[in-house]
Amino acid sequence: MKPVNIHCHELPPSEVIGIVSTEPGNDLPDTPRISMGLHPWRLDNWRERLKTIEEFAASGKLQAIGECGLDRAHSSAPFDEQITVFEEQAELAAKYQLPVIVHCVRAVPETIAVKLKYPGVPAWILHGYNSKPQLLQDALRHGFYVSFGPKAKPELIELTPPDKLFLETDDSNSDINILYRTTAKLLNRNVNILAREIHENYVRIFT
Fold it and tell me: What three-state secondary structure class fits 187?
């Protein structure tokens, strides 16, 4: 069973199923598993760049929209503008039936509100989650999948049901296989069973 890396920025090795994140204006990664989005840190000229995302979505070259979302801590863009851009991308995801890979920093309630506004989006994945347990539970109650990276707090992973769990390396140089082993040990679960459960989540969303 190939391990799934739900969010990475470099091409994964051939034995890994990895969704490679990019932004409009960058060269497309040499893989069929691409997500493209407008990151809340970089919203310059977003209307024109959004057109590029739609072109690739319409041509079937994307597996997901994102990463995109809301960030109260690090984005210089006004929060209202962040919400507008996030909603525009959610609309594309609903139109082309693509999952959304979500960047969310100090904005879980607002992210949930956007999800509720766009019920036609097939799946929402909170990537790199590492915030409060209560907010995680709120997101899970609203149907989010949640992905954890190498620095995730163990109690957050323990709170997440297997059928909502993903793992990722994001922009780190971490080995996804090591992350699977450490997560399996944390959950007291056989690593092959963990890999199968996460693979089933991937199949449910992306096939």
Answer: coil
Q: Report whether 84 contacts 110 (CB < 8 A).
A: no
Angle at 28 (CA atoms; ends 69, 169), nearest 5 degrees: 55
Question: Please, which residues have CB within 8 angstroms of residue 63's CB and are 6 or more apart in sequence?
Answer: 19, 32, 33, 34, 35, 98, 99, 206
Q: What is the mean pLDDT of residues 1-24?
A: 96
Burial 13-46 (b: 16+ CB within 10 A, else e): eeebbbbbbbbbeeeebeeebbbbbbbbeebeeb
Confidence (pTM):
0.97
Residue with tokens 């092959």: 192
- The 4-8 sheet, strands edge to edge: 4-8, 17-22, 34-36, 64-71, 100-105, 124-126, 145-148, 165-167
**Angle at which helices 133-141 and 108-117 cross, to 10°:** 10
pLDDT surpassing 90 at residue 150: yes
Percentage with pLDDT > 70 across the chain:
100
pLDDT surpassing 90 at residue 37: yes
User: In whole angstroms, how large is the CA radius of gyration of the chain?
Assistant: 16
List C-alpha distances in Å: 94 to 97, 123, 134, 161.
Answer: 5, 10, 28, 25
Tally Cβ neighbours within 10 Å of residue 125: 25
